[in-house]
Structure prediction request, 122 residues.
Amino acid sequence: MYAVIKTGGKQYKVAKDDVLTVEKLSANAGDSVSLDEVLMVGGDGAPKVGTPTVSGASVKAEVLEQTRGDKITVFKKSRRKHYRRKNGHRQELSRIRVTDIVGAGKAKKAAPKKAAAEKTEE
Prediction:
């Protein structure tokens, strides 16, 4: 069984016991977290695709550690104007292990568009 989740503005395809690095989550190492923005659940039969999320579906994960990414250098320069700015950045990250995928529920139905409803009335 697999799922597509959204966290930190990015989407990840995960399965049970996967270890992945995501944007920092507000939990300490060893804590369990529940990721509720599940966009798709598949593996047993036809996949359930949400619009935008699958209701009742969640992914349970355990936070392994809080870490920081590699340092990057941000350098801005305007030539012939003596303008130079140098800055650095290290992104804060969380390493998580997926412990369970709960795929109960059905995909949310998209609301019908008003324009289509008005045309049928005429």
In short: The chain is about 5% helix and 55% strand. Residues 114-121 form the longest helix (8 residues). The mean pLDDT is 88.
